[in-house]
Predict the 3D structure of the following.
Amino acid sequence: MFWRSAYLMLILGGIASSGASYADTVKVFVLAGQSNAVGFGSDANELPPELYAPQSDVLLWFEEGPYNSVDNPELRISSGEAFVELQFQHDPTGATFGGLVDGFGPEIKLGRGLADALNDDVAVVKFAINATSLAQDWNPDDPESLYAELTGIVANALAELADMGLTPQVSGFFWMQGEWDCFTEQDALAYDENLTHLIDVVREEYSDAGLPFVFGRLNVHIDESCCYSFPYLDEVRAGQATVAETVASHG
């Protein structure tokens, strides 16, 4: 399962409780990327009972889909431009999760863990599309990129929370992506530069030079997949390690 391929989390910045609890404050965490973020190959039936059930104290806003939904948003599944309780997602076409109609990504354990660890209410905004690259599809300098879509989705989610009488605060960004930059040497060698730029743009977008940015390093064994070969896997992994070592936790 590709969503399980990231074995090492590299953390830039720290996520910590403020030490106070405010009923009207919601910490918003963004989850974005490709198949690892979507949860391709996952099966909701594998969730333990306590996570299979909707998490009534954690909000989820999601939009996600298969690789061909980059230019065809109608192929995506979503929460209907609204928040729902944190839960696995349903796709009757089977396209999003690779054949199983009920799937999930990191958001289930992530949302539950954050809600348990923090004193504030938690909301997760998930936007991910299978088989997409940072160099091309997520390029933050392209006004028509998936990154541009993401910022619009987050803005709508924040507005919805404000309309609910809550005070939203973007408190962290989780990035699960990298395989699709392993196919060409050019994209692979540029991964550290592109990821660094993405982090800078995200922190500028949300006016927080120390916004925690968490990403999963590609699994060294993912090249053993039955279906794909990733010729520049080592170069992307090296780029990820470089970012973890060189990008400051705080601006």
In short: The beta strands are 8-12, 25-33, 55-65, 77-78, 84-86, 89-90, 102-103, 121-129, 167-176, 213-217. The chain has one domain: 2-14+21-246.
